[in-house]
Structure formats: C-alpha cells, structure tokens
Amino acid sequence: MGASPAGDFYSLPLRNRQQAGSYKKTQRKKAMSNWTDVAAEADLFEGAGIAVAHEGQDIALFIVDGEVFAINNLCTHGNAKLCDGFVEGHNVECPFHQAQFSLRDGSVACGPATEPVKSWPVKMEGGRVFLQLG
Ligand code: FES
User: Fold this and answer.
1) How far is the CA of 73 from the centre of ligand 1 (A)?
2) Is the pTM of this model over 0.85?
C-alpha cells in the first residue's frame, strides 16, 4: 500500500498536526473571503452584457440560461467593449471586427483576435453576483 497525504498528516506529532490544521483553516477562510460583490443579479439580462468596474479592472458580465459569466471587458484585438457585443450561445462577438470569445473561459472562438480575454470564477448568493478576482 502506497503512502497517502492523510497518512503523512497523521504520522506528524500532535503539535504539528494542530498547526497544519490551523493553517488549512486559515487558507480556507481566505479562499472563502476572496469573493467580491460586483453587481445585482437583477441588473443582468439574457443576451446582453453589462460593464462593472472594480479596482481599475473593466469587467463584462453576461447571463446565459441563468448562468453568469465574467470576462475582461476590453477586446484583445482593439479598443472595443465586449459588454456591447452580440451574445450567441456561450460566445460574445466583438462589436468592432466580430472576433468571438467564449464566455466560459475567455478563449478565442473566432478571429481576428488571437489572444484570449481574462475570465473570473462567478458565484451567485442572495441575488448578488460575486467574482473571485484574486
Ligand atoms: S476590436 Fe475586437 S475584434 Fe477587433
């Protein structure tokens, strides 16, 4: 039988296990508090994007079939705002030269853009939209 991470944990002296547990709790708390409230769910409309700004970041939010997506609002091909783009399925089409980006991960679905846009994890809670921006 091979060694497992749990086996390693329990082979530590009690004092070290307590410190490791405390470290894990701190990390978990940090991860949970890493979400930033950026918008109300009621502000979103199927088939259209909205722009939100947080600490200098220009972010476009979209809702597709009740699922919310967050990508960088600026097209990587030029100075166009993707929140003004046309939503088709899970892609948004840039209003300038029609490059398409996946709302799921920001990847390029169709040129002329060649660089993806950044995307962020999203969660909904209490009618609010939270992004994991860190
Ligand atoms: S500016 Fe977006 S495709 Fe050219």
Assistant:
1) 12
2) no
